[in-house]
Amino acid sequence: MTIPQQNALELALQQAADEPAYRPAFFKLLLTSTVYVLGKTGEDWIAGAARQDDPAQSIELEHWEKTDGATAIPFFTSLDTLRQVVTEPQPFLALPVRTLFAMTAGAELFLNPKLPYGKTFGPDEITALMMNNGDALTDREIAEGEMRFMLSDSAEKPAQMVDSLTRLFAEFKQVRRAFMVQIRDEPQDPPHWLIGLECEGDGEPAIEAAGQVATDTAPDEQPVDLCLVGQDEPGISHYFIHHITPFYERKWGSWLRSLREDGQS
């Protein structure tokens, strides 16, 4: 029995949210899929029943405001998932993912928001996916004072470390977002993990606790560095804030997982 496309995509999303090893397969399937997005087009629009394949025709897509005041364009793996979130009649379009990504270049998108499983897509991640046919890796050389570092956004982050840190940060209300990349001092050096925390107020207690958890859960005893990042700061902070999708975000997460055992999302 063949699994319908939308069900296959939702299954792949759930697997990718729970296990980083499934993320490359999810990205490749996503780029071949059709998704549903809230919006409308020309005067001949039939609400809730149209497909948009003409990129020349004007389209207005709905933006939702996030808790930090920024906006993201919501899109959904299937019509059923859209209707779980949007209960009032609203116009929507069915779009190939590549068409959606191309027409929203520079914007942040959110797949299946307000549902147990979902994924944010930042502009750089979308560009990498489109250019590399489903490979979300990006490399940057960043200057921090007198030093330069090579940073790369790995699609396969350590699952146990991500899960444990996500649970930890839920106990620290000052942690707004947490990012994770691989860092090298020199191109020939083996990479290790760098975690950046964006905090409100004193972030040192969260840094101290996260350092212990990260050390205990890092694969193969890899070293882990941690730093605080700020919205308007240059260098590594700017790279994290503007180019990397957070693996943890208060209320809005990058990879949303199933409800925790305590019943909180």
Topology:
Layout: H1 5-18, H2 23-31, E1 34-40, E2 50-51, E3 60-61, E4 64-65, E5 71-76, H3 79-85, E6 92-96, H4 97-103, E7 109-111, E8 118-121, H5 123-131, E9 138-144, E10 147-153, H6 159-169, E11 175-184, E12 192-199, H7 204-217, E13 224-228, H8 236-243, E14 248-249, E15 255-256
Helix pairs in contact: 1-2, 6-7
Q: Could you describe the 3D structure shown?
A:
Strands 1, 2, 3, 4, 5, 6, 7, 8 and 15 form a nine-stranded mixed beta sheet that branches. Strands 9, 10, 11, 12, 13 and 14 form a six-stranded mixed beta sheet that branches. The chain has two domains: 5-117, no CATH class; 138-256, GMP Synthetase, Chain A, domain 3, CATH 3.30.300. A hairpin with a 7-residue loop joins strand 11 (175-184) and strand 12 (192-199). The longest helix is centred in the first third of the chain and has 14 residues, at 5-18. The protein is globular, with a radius of gyration of 19 Å. It has eight helices and 15 strands. It has helices at residues 5-18, 23-31, 79-85, 97-103, 123-131, 159-169, 204-217, 236-243; strands spanning 34-40, 50-51, 60-61, 64-65, 71-76, 92-96, 109-111, 118-121, 138-144, 147-153, 175-184, 192-199, 224-228, 248-249, 255-256. With 265 residues, the protein is of the alpha+beta class.
Which structural traits does this protein have?
265 residues; alpha+beta; GMP Synthetase, Chain A, domain 3; 2 domains; nine-stranded mixed β-sheet; six-stranded mixed β-sheet; disordered C terminus
State the end-to-end CA separation: 33 Å
Contiguous runs where pLDDT drops below 50 for at least 5 residues: 44-53, 258-265
Taken as a percent bin, the fraction of beta residues is: 25-35%
Shape: globular
Give the helix/strand class: alpha+beta
CATH class annotation of the largest domain: Alpha Beta
Return the string of H and E elements. Answer: HHEEEEEHEHEEHEEHEEHEHEE
The beta-strand count equals 15
- Provide the CATH topology of the largest domain: GMP Synthetase, Chain A, domain 3
**How can the largest sheet be summarized?**
9 strands, mixed
User: Helical residue percent?
Assistant: 25-40%
* Domain module count: 2
Q: What is the oligomeric state here?
A: single chain
Work out the helix count: 8
Specify the CATH architecture of the largest domain: 2-Layer Sandwich
Radius of gyration: 19 Å
Mean pLDDT across all amino acids:
79
